[in-house]
Write a structure and sequence with these properties.
There is one protein chain. The chain has a single domain, classed as NAD(P)-binding Rossmann-like Domain (Rossmann fold, 3-Layer(aba) Sandwich). The chain is built from 6 helices and 9 strands, in the order βαβαβαβαβαβββαβ. Helix 1 packs parallel to helix 2, helix 1 crosses helix 6 and helix 4 runs parallel beside helix 5. Strands 3-2-1-4-5-6-9 form a 7-stranded parallel beta sheet, sandwiched between helices. A two-stranded parallel sheet has the order 7-8. Strand 1, helix 1 and strand 2 form a beta-alpha-beta unit. The protein has 234 residues and is of the alpha/beta class. 41% of the residues are buried. 42% of the residues lie in helices and 18% in strands. The structure holds NADP nicotinamide-adenine-dinucleotide phosphate. The site of NADP nicotinamide-adenine-dinucleotide phosphate has 29 residues, from helix 1 and strand 7.
Length: 234
């Protein structure tokens, strides 16, 4: 096992190029962390690596599509190599924001949400677990959505896939908690991100928070002596 107190934190973040994931990447970078970011768009990956390094961290770009099993495995392999075998923190954040009435949803919409929100994190966890077990302070953050508990109109796609994230998180905690791997579900309300942009006018004046507030809540949860099972940021 590697003592986390003697080396920079090693943080793997999916969806870390924009919105919530980007703010989390920069929050950890400001703490001097090594931050490996996974997403599809190479220009955005180059940009966040530069920002991580300007903020005081060390960055690495792991290009992947969460819908492509082989590319997810390759991205995690690259990150673990960058971390020299030990991963301290995983943030499963890659995802979408999409609101559509149930009777307008197609099976492609449904399968895309389940693939990115659920199957992708499953693949990440399967691949990253041996290196998490090397850390003395391993912590997994799974980004769900507050709306999953009480969806409004047009939110069944988000609610179903993100409720799955909550179930996966609870199961992971049951399996990994006894080994000392901490697992926290992150439940953002509406967050002002590029992903929310197209839907902002449909929210009817609901409160919208910032990506930085989500990132700060994750940092606080990481530092807490007793890891919270869930954090809500609304
Ligand atoms: N914003 C909100 O109000 C809100 C509320 C609750 C929960 N959430 C959740 O929070 C997470 C982040 O949302 P956000 O609003 O920050 O979204 P965003 O601004 O659209 O950013 C999404 C991130 O995920 C990556 N991504 C999307 N699809 C991907 C794929 N197939 N493979 C790999 N990476 C992919 C994107 O990069 P590429 O496009 O380059 O791949 C980007 O880095 C999502 O899981 C979302 O469901 C958001």
């Amino acid at each position: 096992m590697t003592d986390s107190s003697q080396s920079p934190l090693r943080v793997f973040i999916t969806g870390g190029t924009r919105g919530i994931g980007r703010a989390i990447a920069l929050r950890f970078a400001r703490e001097g962390a090594m931050v490996a970011v996974a997403a599809r768009t190479s220009a955005d990956l180059d940009a966040i690596v530069a920002e991580i390094e300007s903020a005081g961290g060390q960055g690495d770009a792991c290009q992947t599509n969460m819908r492509d099993h082989g590319s997810v495995e390759a991205a995690v392999f690259r990150a673990v190599d960058f971390f020299e075998g030990t991963t301290d923190i995983v943030v499963n954040c890659a995802g979408l924001v999409e609101f559509k009435p149930f009777d307008e949803l197609g099976v492609d919409d449904w399968e895309r949400a389940l693939a990115v929100h659920l199957t992708g994190p499953f693949l990440v966890m399967a691949e990253v677990l041996p290196s998490l077990r090397e850390s003395e302070r391993a912590h997994v953050f799974n980004v769900g959505a507050h709306l999953a508990g009480q969806p409004g109109p047009g939110q069944s796609l988000m609610a179903a896939s993100k409720a799955g994230v909550e179930g996966m998180s609870r199961g992971l905690r049951a399996d990994l908690g006894p080994e000392g791997v901490r697992v926290t579900t992150v439940l953002p309300g509406y967050v002002d991100t590029p992903g929310l942009g197209p839907w902002k006018e449909t929210l009817g004046g609901a409160a919208v928070t910032t990506s930085e507030a989500v990132a700060d809540a994750i940092w606080d949860a990481y530092q807490a002596e007793a890891a919270p099972d869930e954090i809500s940021i609304c």
